[in-house]
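Quick one:
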Amino acid sequence: MIDYKFTNDNITSKRVENFIDKIDFSYHINTFDYTTTHGHDDYWEFTLLTEGKLNNVLNGQKIPVTAGQMFFSTTADTHYLKKVGSEKIRYINIIARESAIKRLADMFSDSFFATLQKMSRKQTFPAELTTQVEEIIHQVMFLPDDAYKEYDGLLCGAVMIVMQFLYRKSVDFIDYGRLNEQPQWVQTLNKAMKKTEFLHYSIADLSILLNYSRMQLTRLFNEKFGTTPHKFLVNYKLRYAQNLLMTTDMKVIDIAEFVGFTNLASFNTYFKNAYGTTPGHFRKTF
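Output:
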């Protein structure tokens, strides 16, 4: 088995060799399988399969992957990729030093890095997010060869798109795959959450929507989601705000109002308590 390091990944683009020690992120786009079992000594690898089918043989287990899905491997994993069938395959690999992954994960929560290591390595990845990643890589391709800071920054953005997606998966309170088996009040809640009006819901609004008293809501939310109705609503607003900070040019004060906070100071306080940094600093880092 080969154990690659970030600095000598065998398919890292030649253009980064002159500044490999100054960057934390890189990428490659491949149209072939890679059947050599290997590990990653000091970096993680996120793979988006855009065409075809392949098997990701991860730690000895065959995991079928189809176009529109993503998978990732950590420093604790070994794997190889085997094409399935005669169709053309194409996949994007984004690689990141483990130290950078830890730094970014801590922006979401103190426990997210540990959560990532326990998550399913394969996920269905939204097409619109794949498009965003593709657009970033297209921009990277046209950078001057010496623009390593911009190269690193743009690819950090691509990794953040993937990590934000994984973070949202990790804190999803509702099992959407089995939604029809959920209690009626959970199904009603899910329908309401699909509308932007839900961002402005209060506990009183939840009581009316679900036809339960505040005391009953507290019991139900603790039993089902392990949190209070108030924290559930706040966490939903913050996750929505985090997405807007990363994907739009909206002013922070406008985002605060959009997601239902009555003033900027309150938004800043809740955001910092949840993610350890202010909304403005979070956006600059991203």
